Prior knowledge:
Layout: H1 2-25, E1 41-46, E2 61-63, E3 65-77, E4 92-105, E5 108-121, E6 126-135, E7 148-149, E8 153-160, E9 166-176, E10 180-181, E11 186-188, E12 190-197, E13 200-209, E14 212-221, E15 227-237, E16 248-249, E17 251-256, E18 263-279, E19 282-285, E20 290-293, E21 299-301, E22 303-307, E23 312-316, E24 343-344, E25 353-354, H2 366-395
Parallel strand pairs: 12-24, 18-21
Antiparallel strand pairs: 1-17, 1-20, 2-15, 3-11, 3-12, 3-18, 4-5, 4-15, 4-17, 5-6, 6-9, 6-10, 7-14, 8-9, 9-25, 12-13, 13-14, 15-16, 18-19, 18-23, 22-23
Helix pairs in contact: 1-2
Amino acid sequence: MRVRALALVVALAAIACVCTVARAQQVVIDPAANLTHMTMSMGIASYGISNISADTGPYVVDTDEVVGVARINGMMAYNASLPAAQNLSAYAASLQLNAVVDIAAQGGALQYWLQDVIEFNTSNMTYYYTDNVWNVTTPTANVSNATLIGGGAVLLSSTRALNGTWQNQTFYASASNLTLPLAYPETLIPVIALARNGTYPMVRMGYIQNGSYFFYDNVTIAAPGGAASMLVTPYQKTPAIDQANASYYDAELVFGGPSNQTMADFEYINATLWLGYAGDNGIEPFPYLATFGSDTGETAQGISVRQGSGSAALGTGTLDYNATIVLAGVPAELAGVQPVGNESVTAPSTTNSTAHNAAQPTPWPWYLAVALAFVVAVAAALHVVAGRHRARKRHA
């Protein structure tokens, strides 16, 4: 009887332990609680939670392709304070497709922040594509020409450190050589896809046009054997990049300033946004989205984001940071488009690209594994004790 009572007590304690850590797994990040900027990038972003203000309904997306659809009927941005010394027009703005790639490399896990950016001049009605890759594995991580191999170059930028001070950090940058006319209504579909270059993971930056993929930059990450995926999860933050103002495993399609942590002030905008990923059934929409991005340093103002018909509707106004956008279906522009993520690419070839200064399922939490191991160990020990007790009774 004593053994049975002891077994019951220990089992209940173990169950309580498992329940406690299981509840801890549900404590998700809250992007809206850390809005320290006067302005943020504005558009749509997936943080892995269904309600930004209530912080509920966590979900995880693990994918090798992220795609955005922007239907722009008209816009005008003007900020007289944009630095002309950096060759930035007062009428400049950007639309950024941002995501985080998680790499299980042989030497340890690596994280890189990816940006496929459309740079606009809303005065002369032109745009072009540019991309950045940042190392966010540690707060002071850098990149080099040996670790990131593509058609661009490694540049130096100032970023906010963990203590709020500024520090220099290298990043990779490239851009398409094509400057294109902006004719309203304009539909733009930026895409980031992961591939393999031999044993190395590769990031492909590009866009979809008339149902076909076009990649202007292929960036090989020199991390041999590393399984790579773009991850959206509410259970952890990325290790670096602007931690003082929050950095998340999220996916974003957001408007902001042209580069270098600048702001775009929108005097007028009429557009819709849609954000999706390569899932089990092809390209699928992210289920729930916030109206602001947190990872990028470029910001915007003068934009309202509200629920549209299966997409986010953007207009001129004030942003509601607590709103939740629910997407439905796949835009007509993506009908019949098959994801190309995880293809094998034989070489890091890049077309029409030049250097330009621009801006897995969630791993099972370690504490649940520890709790399960504890329960198994306790059960095994009790089994041994009970066996000895039975043996003593037989001997008696």
